[in-house]
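User: My advisor asked me to double-check a structure prediction for AraC-like DNA-binding protein before group meeting. I don't want to rely on an old file, so could you generate it fresh from this sequence?
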Amino acid sequence: MLQGSKQVFIGDQVLEYGAGHCMVVAAELAAMGQISEASPEEPYVALNLYIDPEVISALLLEMGSMPEPPMNKGFGFSPAGPALIDAWRRLVELLDRQDEIPIMARHREHELMFRLLMGPQGALLRQIAGNGSRLSHVRRAMAWIREHYTEHLSIAAMATVAGMSVSVFHRRFKAISGLSPLQYQKQIRLHEARRRLIAERSEAASVAYAVGYESVSQFSREYKRLFGAPPRQDAGKLQNIVESVA
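Assistant: Sure, here is a fresh prediction for AraC-like DNA-binding protein from the sequence you gave:
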């Protein structure tokens, strides 16, 4: 992050980070964020880069084998040191020299990933690269939940996809995502419902059934608990914001 600050809500955790901080996300979390500091004179500015596991794996081969780090959260943030900031700067500078991108972008990306591996989030990145790591097993279950989020899912079925016992799966899933597996599924449903309400202007009842709820009243209660307002009211407010910006 270059300017401003942001709050991110993951489960019952509230994280706040600002200029000079770097955040690494190793799993597709059910999270919400809001910009907490910005102004027309000093707007919120951040850079984002997709982490390619193959790049991390190639670097680890060159750096030598490392033991699998202990299971931790699926995200983390820390101050970005001068070397990491400099690697970011030189990667972004290629946008002004686009004829160099085909040759230089790969090298700059490798340097940036190397700096991250050598920093406080290195253990998290090593988990991303490992196809057989504990994180990769939980990520596989997360992907399966997102594909089947409208269905009635059991913890046992999720654990089977992850290749773990129910108790181990539940513990590791919550450590990584900040949510239990069923809470994660619920938030996937509610975020999709919010998207549909805003984009499609659909009725709350039809959206509730479409994302897997059997009770509209339960859907409305859980929606308000997560987003702070009933479905139609929340969607209407966000639609007005989108239209005013457009």
